[in-house]
Structures are given as C-alpha cells and as structure tokens.
Amino acid sequence: MSEPLDSLIKDIEKRVRAKDPTAVERAAQLAEQYPDEPEVWFSLAFVYSMYRDMDGAVAAMTRMIDIAPPNPMNLFFRARYEHKRGNLEATLADCTEGIALSEQRQDERCLSSLYFMRADVLVTLGRKAEALADLEHVEDDHVEWTTRLRTKAAILADCGVPRKPWRAMSEPLDSLLDEIEIRVHDEKATALERAEQLTEQYPEEPEVWRTLADVHATMGDWDSSVAAITRMIEVTPPHPRMYFYRGHYEHKRGNLQAALADFNQAVALAKELQEEDGWEQLYFMRADVLAALGRKAEARADLAHV
Predict the structure, then answer these.
(1) 151: helix, strand or coil
(2) Which H or E run includes 144?
(3) Is the pLDDT of residue 2 over 70?
(4) DSSP at 146
C-alpha cells in the first residue's frame, strides 16, 4: 500500500474517533477511488460499524474478503458484524470457515475468539452440546463482546452447567483476586462483597485495592475506583502504573485537572525509574486530556511518543 493511501485511511480513523460525520462519506469515496485495495474496504467496514450500520459493515467486509487472500481475521470481523445485526446463521458460517482456516494455517491469532463467538451463537440456537464442545477450546477467563459483554462462565451457565462455587476466603490471595477479576462481569454484587472483604483482611496488600477499584469501575462507580486506587498509592512504593490507573478513573469521572496531575506524576516516575518504554497509552491518554483542556501543543508533543 502506498504511503498517501495509508495516510488517507489514518485520517478517516481520526475522523471516526473525533465523531466527525464526514468519516462515512470520506471512507466511501476512498473505496470508490481504490476499489481493489483490501485495507480500504476494511476501513469502510470499521467506519460503518462505529456508526451502527451493520449492513454496510458486512457489505464492506464481504468486498474485502472477495479481493484479499484468505485470512481468518477477516472472517472473524465479518462474523462480529453479522452477529450484531442478528444474522445468526451467517455468523455461524463465518465462524466455522474461520476456525477451519485458522487450524489449516496453524494461525491462532483469533481462534479462541472464533470458538467463543460460535459457542455464543450455538447456545442461542439451542445447540448446547455443540456450544459446550466449542468452549473446550476457550480459556476459563475469556471475556469478549459479541452482542454484549460475555464470559465463558455465562455461556456455560446458558448451557445448563452449574456455576462453580466461589473459592473459600482462606485460599491464597492471588487465586482469590484472579477469581474476582474473572467473575465480576457476571456476578458483580458477589465480586464487590468479596473484594471489600479482602481489603479488610489484607489492608496493606496493594493488589486488593487495585482489584476493588476494578470491580467499582465495572459497575461504573468511578468515585469509589478513585478512592480505592488512592488507598493503593498509600500502601505501596511509588510506581507509574498506580497514577496511570487513578488518572484513568479521574478522567472517567470528568475531573480533567486531577487526571492530568496523575498522568504527569506517572510520566515523571517512568522517567525517574527509566521505564519509559511501553507507556504509549499513558502518553496517549495524557494527550487526550491536554487536548480537552485546549493545550494542543503539549498534546501533540505527547502524541510523538505514540
């Protein structure tokens, strides 16, 4: 793909993220201009999906599949769009073809997700034994959006498999925290209760406060997430990730100045600890806050790290 075309596609993606209504028109124009470039059709499908036009997204992905070399990822994306528009048989067909192609090529990039989506469709169609067979290929902690946020445990429950009882609170702390993270999507109230119990049992353990913050975030309670991460900061040596977490939650609750202060602290600590590599998301999120505050030159400087 030529550089100019790549730049045009990136411009469309920026328009989508800025909620610019011209993104759809521009992506369609690009598809007319470069009808034999697969990435143009992928971009158009993405734009349609972001504007909830799943018919358009499926049509664009179909065109991409027609002109691109066989690739299970393309079938996975079309299956997602078919699922979102309620076309279960078409979703099933794309998942099945994607699984066969993945196994043929020994390409595991989206294999678990294809099995997971197919299981979600199969259980909806009442084909529970087949859904259970597909879930054998999926890790227990798998969480993914199909038509809604779904977990493996939730699909198993839909198949009639009883949920496992929660671990005894006397088990190792790491295993208790992992279980809360896995089950919070399906059992929020119990996850919150147990996370709070762990903070009472282990008040000096930083990770119990991070887990509690995650549970509150899953429930949309950003004030409590900030409070929990603040407690985490108080009981552990300074590290960029803690300020990154709190800045994210401050941003979510609309407190831009507090978010900026935390992101600044995270950047300063990353430099002090010489851990700047891998912090692209930190710079990206700080740039988002700076742009919202009208400090565009500083935002552009941060985006140079992304």
Answers:
(1) strand
(2) strand 143-145
(3) no
(4) S
* Token code pair at residue 105: 């090529």
Q: How many CB atoms lie within 10 A of CB 16?
A: 18
Which residues fall within 8 angstroms of residue 40, CB to CB, at 6 or more apart? 5, 9, 27, 30, 31, 33, 34
State how far the Cα of 306 lies from the Cα of 280, in Å rounded to an integer.
Answer: 5
Q: Which candidate, 76, 56, 75, places its Cα nearest to that of 66? A: 75
Say how far residue 95 (Cα) sits from the centre of its chain: 20
Average pLDDT over residues 172-187: 93
How do residues 187-214 score in pLDDT, each as one tens digit? Answer: 999 999 999 999 999 999 999 999 999 9
d(CA 49, CA 70): 22
Residue 37 structure tokens: 């470039």
Cβ count near 86 (within 10 Å)? 11
The CA angle 76-81-82, to the nearest 5 degrees, is: 95
Chain-centroid distance of CA 133 in Å reads 25
Which amino acid is residue 222, in one-letter code? W
Residue 29, token pair as written in the block: 């124009």
Length in residues, the chain: 306
Rounded Cα–Cα distance for residues 138 and 159 (Å):
15
Q: What does the block give as tokens for 284?
A: 């990206």
Helix (H) or strand (E) holding 249: helix 240-252
pLDDT in tens, 34-47: 999 999 999 999 99
**What token pair was written down for 43?**
């971009």
